[in-house]
Write a structure and sequence with these properties.
Elements (H helix, E strand, L loop, with lengths): L1 H17 L3 H12 L4 H8 L8 H37 L18 H15 L3 E2 L5 E3 H4 L24 E3 L5 H9 L4 E10 L10 E11 L4 H15 L6 E8 L2 E10 L23 E10 L1 H6 L8 E8 H9 L12 H4 L6
Parallel strand pairs: 1-4
Antiparallel strand pairs: 2-3, 4-5, 5-9, 6-7, 7-8, 8-9
This protein binds phenylalanine.
Length: 348
């Protein structure tokens, strides 16, 4: 007994010392101290040994059991400490390293220009209206005097959502929506995204327009000229030359396109280096607006009496104005999210 206890003790101490994980340690505990553990069984077996040997054997066994318990505890503490140390080592943070910096955003150049445009019109008493990007055929075309077979409905430019629904190709349908639901006097601008199937350095499949219109009893072309000339002078500069050139839109009559003098060549068409100006291609003028007096036919569509009311409407491309203002040559720069491009507008 004496000797076998000694061997058992050695064996247990050795196994505990070499035990490498908590589950393994639990196993050992069960194996020796569990309900059917070896030490437990030995303690239970005391009953069968002669009475005079029992106290000594019992004491020895109890001491062994206590020792094993202590050793298991100690080993467990050791394993835990070691694990903690490993975690501390592996997850160590070098607090002397420089922190990562938060990039600070700024207003997108298109938003800057859009806000500036809106501000000028708010200053003249216009109010803002909005319409849906997905528009029905009626509002995008039909009510703007473009029947189904009208050549102005260039199939290639329109994104169709279904037979009857399109991504609006311009902001003019907002004219219809506002006039359908309200009566004159109206003085409205409608900023927003528009969509056309077109993609190159000066065209983007999604771009922005600001529509504007004014309807009342006696609105004339002179009002149109006054409002738009004021607008252009505010957005570009006070002395800029402006030209109203006859044009055509199905929903305005008469119609005009409005040009400003080319900012690169100063309207000369041929800059100093004697090559044809690449911005205006030698014409000296840049088109920035489409406009006209609202066609009587459009008034009939919205239930207005063209004998009693008149009005003007205009529409402009925001990207184009931003490109001219900032000297940007490729429209795609607006949508590439290149931080090097966007940062240049931080201070504006
Ligand atoms: N909707 C026209 C376009 O997108 C612009 C325009 C608006 C012209 C209002 C006249 C009147 O080209």
């Amino acid at each position: 007994m004496q000797e076998s206890l000694e061997t058992l003790r050695e064996e247990i101490l050795d196994r505990v010392a070499h035990c490498g994980s908590e589950p393994e340690l639990d196993h050992l505990r069960v194996e020796y101290l569990g309900r059917k553990g070896r030490i437990t069984l030995l303690l239970r077996g005391l009953r069968e040994i002669p009475a005079e040997e029992r106290p000594q054997a019992g004491e020895q066994l109890n001491r062994l059991r206590q020792l094993v318990e202590e050793q298991l505890e100690a080993r467990l503490a050791e394993l835990k400490a070691r694990e903690k140390e490993r975690i501390l080592r592996e997850e160590r943070v070098d607090i002397t390293l420089p922190g990562s910096r938060w990039e600070r955003g700024q207003i997108h150049p298109l938003t800057l220009v859009m806000d500036e445009i809106i501000d000028v019109f708010l200053g003249m008493g216009f109010e803002i209206a909005r319409g849906p990007d997905i528009e029905d055929d009626y509002h995008n075309f039909e009510a703007l005097n473009m029947p189904k077979d009208h050549p102005a409905r260039d199939m290639q430019d329109t994104f169709f959502v279904s037979q009857e629904r399109v991504l609006r190709t311009h902001t003019s349908p907002v004219q219809i929506r506002v006039m359908e639901s309200r009566k004159p006097p109206l003085q409205i601008i409608a900023p927003g995204a528009v969509y056309r199937h077109d993609d190159d350095a000066t065209h983007s499949p999604m771009f922005h327009q600001v529509e504007g219109f004014m309807v009342d009893g006696h609105i004339s072309f002179a009002d149109l000229k006054g409002v738009l000339t004021h607008f252009i002078r505010r957005i570009f500069r006070a002395e800029i030359k402006v030209r109203f050139r006859p044009s055509f839109f199905p929903f305005t009559e008469p119609s005009a396109e409005i040009d400003i003098e080319c900012m690169l060549c100063g309207g000369k068409g041929i800059p100093k280096d004697q090559q044809v100006c690449r911005v205006c291609r030698g014409s000296g003028w840049l088109e920035i607006l489409g406009a006209g007096m609202i066609d009587p036919q459009v008034f009939r569509f919205v239930g207005y009496d063209p004998e009693k009311v008149s009005g003007f409407a205009f529409g402009m491309g925001v990207e184009r104005i931003a490109m001219l203002k900032f000297g940007i040559e490729d429209i795609r720069l607006f949508f590439q999210n290149d931080i090097r491009f966007l940062r240049q507008f931080a201070c504006l």
